[in-house]
Write a structure and sequence with these properties.
Number of domains: 2
Strand order of the largest sheet: 1-2
Mean pLDDT: 82
Distance between the termini: 94 Å
Strand content: under 5%
Low-confidence stretches: 282-295, 354-361
Helix content: 55-70%
Number of helices: 12
Order of helices and strands: HHHEHEHHHHHHHH
Shape: elongated
Structural class: mainly alpha
Length: 361
Amino acid sequence: MDSVGVIEILAVLAGLAVVLVTGGDAVSTLVTTRRRRGRRWPTPVYYRWSWRAWRAIGRRGSPEWREAFLGVYGPLSLLGLLVFWVMLLVAGWGAVWWGLRSAVSGVHSYLDAVYFAGVGFFTVGFGDLLPTGGLTRLLVLVEAFMGLLTMALLIGYLPTLYGAYSRRELQLLTLDDLLDEPTTPVRFIEASYANGGVQGVAAAFADWERWCDDVFDTHTAFPMLAMYRSRQPGQHWLTGLAVVLDAAALSLAIADPSPSGPAARLWRRATRLLQGLQRLPAVELQAGDRDAGPGGDETRFRAVYERLAGLGQPVAPYAEAWETYRRLRTAYVPELVAATELLLVPMEFRHQTSRLDLTGG
């Protein structure tokens, strides 16, 4: 076998490898929805580099412009991922057809092979280039089927994706405490307490526990959902998670130390959700992150402790509550800080609502 024949065989093998890896990545993303551990699969590579570039541009503008610009990335990235897959598949099939060019009339260069691959992948069927052998004709059918399957999978994937997004955003609306100020963990607890006492707080924690389970499941299966920003100004799902997670930590430290109570269950679910976000591309923890984040100073904690003690429920001794709170925060603050820095999320959750005037004035 001469060197030309060896090169042709290598081209066919390399092209098939690209096709199989890309096809496997698409099926893993759209069908099995199981994350691959490797960072070099097409989807992680695409999101890692595209988000870094988009994020770098977004940081240059004003906060309003940045939010609008970053909000486009999520939906647009899904279209870009499809284009990325198609480019890899067509390039891989092009290498296959270049290696088998003796069995395809009219293919003399790699560009001819890519053109023939595109015609087959999109089932255009111009008929200007034709396979002449039995194996090549069979491969053309396989390629055409792969093209149709890729498009069908993506179309079927969209309702599931946007359904998960809508459920996530709908829950965020319940954080409205009817004040035109940022929603805080202690206000979340006070509003829940006013809506039913201890049982109201437990019900609120249970409701957000289910939300954390749903977000963990959907965002593990569809990691691009983490990049989708809220439709409402001043809101972000990650900031909402920070509010309820810190509320659970405060409740565990001050008022509800039960290891199986609603606050403990919410804290575990939310912490697991944040830890799962570390699989997102480009999340890196920096030294000192475990002492960062909102609510870490003792002066603020003392004020919160006094406010919760004023609700009339039994509370833990102050020194014990402070140490418990510090210990609980170390389990989620590093991941929270890293995720907010990655996604450029402001650590403030605000409802853009107007006060309801009941006085008639």
